[in-house]
């Protein structure tokens, strides 16, 4: 496979388009080449990001590695040339959407990992700091997020199988497309609001509102994202969050699994903020009512999971 680092973009693309594995059982494969490619991109992300247009048209396994390498580089503090990266990302997301539109078996989708890595890259680039994407990213980033939010991953069957293996909603949220799209959508809204405090967030609210409908969105992993993100949602729009608290934490007994996914995420990841606690007064009371009494008949104290009106645990 040679030394990838020294290759120009054109030579690198030519190699990736023409290289064939030997077929030896222990020989190099496309996946091992992709792993090396990702490391190469990560180590020289500034230059390679400016050349990202050249990678349009490559197979999914290589595009996924390229975007993953850029994502890891941004986490390392690399500053990218975002416009070419976004053009590659929009093209890759279109391949994922087209594949799903024509696929009989969504579990074998080749572009799934590319879409997931694209969302991770965007979420990292939307964080405040030196690596932050420019304002020109707004429309292409939103196009990707909105498309990915309708991805069928995770399917109900895949989610049920993961829970049988002992995984939780939080783990699934990190490794599946639709919950990651919601994470990235929230990062997008925070990023957009920083640049323009008066920006219209109606597209964002429409998207996250649609995914709060249980028949439309049954995934506990998605509901977990909402629970973990309540403080951010309240920061973006306190009134909207207050109005949708019962949707984030549904009261219907048949949807208790969704309530538990959201509440567990909220307890685990959300800081204690009095204004947010006030929004969730009914949910705190529900949590207190659902605590199981111990052998003495008393409900145990649980970290800010029972409500006494001040965001402090209530005992009794």
Give a verbal description of the structure:
- By secondary structure, this protein is mainly α.
- The chain folds into two domains: 1-99 and 109-119, no CATH class; 149-291 and 306-316, no CATH class.
- Helix content is 61%, strand content 0%.
- The chain has 18 helices and no strands.
- Helix 5 packs parallel to helix 7 and helix 12 (220-228) packs parallel to helix 16.
- It is globular.
The helix-and-strand class reads mainly alpha
Largest sheet: none
Overall 3D form: globular
Radius of gyration: 22 Å
Give the percentage of residues in beta strands.
under 5%
Helix content: 55-70%
Please work out how many helical segments DSSP would assign. Answer: 18
**Topology as a string of helices (H) and strands (E):** HHHHHHHHHHHHHHHHHH
Q: Termini separation (Å)?
A: 67 Å
Number of domains: 2
Mean pLDDT: 90
Q: How many strands?
A: 0
Low-confidence runs: 299-307
């Amino acid at each position: 496979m040679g030394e990838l680092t020294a290759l120009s973009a054109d030579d690198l693309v030519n190699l990736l388009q023409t290289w064939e594995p030997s077929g030896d059982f222990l020989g190099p494969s496309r996946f091992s080449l992709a792993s090396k490619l990702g490391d190469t991109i990560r180590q020289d992300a500034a230059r390679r990001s400016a050349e990202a247009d050249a990678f349009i048209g490559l197979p999914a396994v290589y595009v996924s590695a390229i975007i993953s390498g850029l994502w890891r580089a941004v986490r390392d503090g690399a500053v990218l040339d975002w416009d070419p990266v976004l053009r590659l990302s929009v093209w890759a997301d279109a391949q994922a959407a087209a594949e799903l539109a024509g696929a009989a078996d969504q579990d074998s989708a080749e572009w799934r990992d590319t879409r997931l890595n694209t969302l991770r890259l965007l979420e990292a680039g939307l964080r405040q700091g030196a690596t932050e994407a420019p304002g020109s990213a707004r429309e292409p980033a939103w196009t990707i997020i909105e498309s990915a939010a309708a991805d069928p991953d995770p399917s109900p069957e895949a989610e049920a199988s993961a829970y049988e293996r002992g995984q939780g909603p939080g783990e699934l949220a990190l490794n599946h497309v639709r919950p990651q799209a919601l994470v990235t959508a929230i990062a997008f809204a925070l990023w957009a609001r920083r640049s323009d405090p008066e920006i219209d967030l109606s597209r964002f609210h429409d998207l996250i509102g649609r995914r709060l409908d249980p028949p439309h969105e049954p995934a506990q992993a998605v509901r977990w994202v909402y629970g973990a993100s309540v403080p951010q949602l309240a920061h973006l729009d306190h009134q909207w969050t207050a109005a949708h608290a019962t949707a984030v934490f549904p009261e219907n007994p048949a949807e208790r699994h969704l309530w538990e996914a959201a509440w567990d995420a909220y307890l685990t990841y959300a800081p204690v903020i009095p204004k947010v606690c006030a929004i969730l007064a009914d949910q705190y009371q529900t949590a207190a009512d659902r605590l199981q009494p111990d052998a003495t008949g008393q409900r145990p104290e649980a970290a800010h999971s029972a409500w006494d009106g001040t965001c402090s645990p209530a005992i009794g």
